[in-house]
Amino acid sequence: MEQKVLEKYAQLLVKKGINIQKNQILVINCPVECAEFARVITKIAYDEGAKEVFINWSDEIITQLRYLHATDEVFDEYPEWMKVFYLNNAEKDAAFLSISATNPELLKDVDSNRITRYQKVSSKAIEEYRNKQMSNKLTWCIASIPTTSWAKKVFPNVSDEKAKEKLWDAIIKTVRVDQDDPKIAWDEHLKNLNKSSKSLNESHFKMLKFHNKLGTDLSIELPEGHIWLGGAEITPNGIVFIANIPTEEVFTLPKKTGVNGIVYSSKPLNYNGNLIEDFSITFKEGKIVDFKAKTGYETLQSLIETDEGSHYLGEVALVSYDSPISKSNILFFNTLFDENASCHLAIGRAYPVCIKNSEGKDAEELNKMGVNNSSTHVDFMFGTKDLQIIGITHDNKEVAIFKDGNFII
To answer: Cα(354)–Cα(315) distance, rounded to whole angstroms?
Structure first.
């Protein structure tokens, strides 16, 4: 990729994504294969006044080898230095930028029990950091650039070089860096997302109903005081940031015990280096009571059985079928992109910022408000071209929200 384009993209992430502040620390979580891009981000962050930039490197092959060959007990331990790293920087109001780019099938040969155990222990160790992140008390952003293994999964029938080139082209378009001025393009895009969330917030729906020809027949009750969000987020200190680049969604939280019916996936889910395909999930009073999968059943089972909260939903997000990512007709095998091509739900933890008067509430108090808690939060896609969504008001009127996969309000 041309240096000019790399710099343009990096500027978007630093200035609009995390919106770095003068004398603020920046933490970058990054695969070693993306080192060149991390260096470009680092230079721009310093130019914009960052106090210091820390890089937390990862290597997918090393990760794979660890899961395959490390002694079993290490998956019940979380390194103290990593816990200190995250918590100390969060206490200092650091910004966190993560580059999401790994082989979608990296861990397909790994014992899923090892993955689940380590996920539990890591979530508990840095729970304070996750709480701040999901309450928007710190600035954070997730973005991506191509790696060879990922690009070859998306474009398997071309050379490594051509695959990366094609994935680069797709990413640059979805994040609007192909525009003359990405900042102006993003300001207009955020305005449109705010319009959709404003309309939903003014409607005060008590329930949403979803139907399509795949078989989805689902009702989701929304808790009193729920808030629809979309596009930019804001910290208590008034710093505006964009948590996901790209983003096409408006989202809120479902009432924990208010989900009933069945939902069918419309795209594969890449979870912990394993693909789950052609799956369905059945709910009763919020809880998952049955599930099926053509591929990746055991992986889906391990996700659902992570903890008690992973048997419930934490997010419902609406995305028009005619979104730019959907129109690309590319299956990215990466949730950051695929979730922004389709309406989606999240298994696990809810964002407390999606309900009024959540500030300062502990997990038990939030639970009474209908807010689910879990150590995990995993999005899966169910939106289709024929998806119909009906909103039910508190006086039991039906309002069409989606027709043929797109917003009509």
So the answer is: 9
Residues 279 and 378 in one domain: yes
Cβ neighbours for 352, distance < 8 A, ≥ 6 positions apart: 134, 135, 358, 359, 361, 366, 371
What residue has token string 């008690």? 308
Residue carrying the six token digits 């600035």: 139
- In this structure, the answer to whether residues 159 and 261 fall within a common structural domain is no
Overall number of domains in the chain: 2
The string of DSSP codes covering 244-309 is BSS---EEE---TT-EEEEEE-SS-EEETTEEEEEEEEEEETTEEEEEEEEE-HHHHHHHHTSSGG
Indicate if 7 and 75 belong to the same structural domain: yes
pLDDT, tens only, 16-49: 999 999 999 999 999 999 999 999 999 999 999 9
In a domain, 185, yes or no: no
Task: Kindly state whether residues 298 and 336 are assigned to the same domain.
Answer: yes
Distance CA 355, CA 136 (A): 13
User: Per residue in 277-335, pLDDT tens?
Assistant: 999 999 999 999 999 999 999 999 999 999 999 999 999 999 999 888 998 989 999 98
Q: Which of the 8 DSSP states describes residue 15?
A: I
Name the pTM for this structure: 0.89
Domain boundary among 128, 158, 174: 174
Cis peptide before 246 (omega within 30 of 0): yes
Task: Count the residues in the chain.
Answer: 409
Q: Which domain does 257 fall in, by range?
A: 204-229+247-407
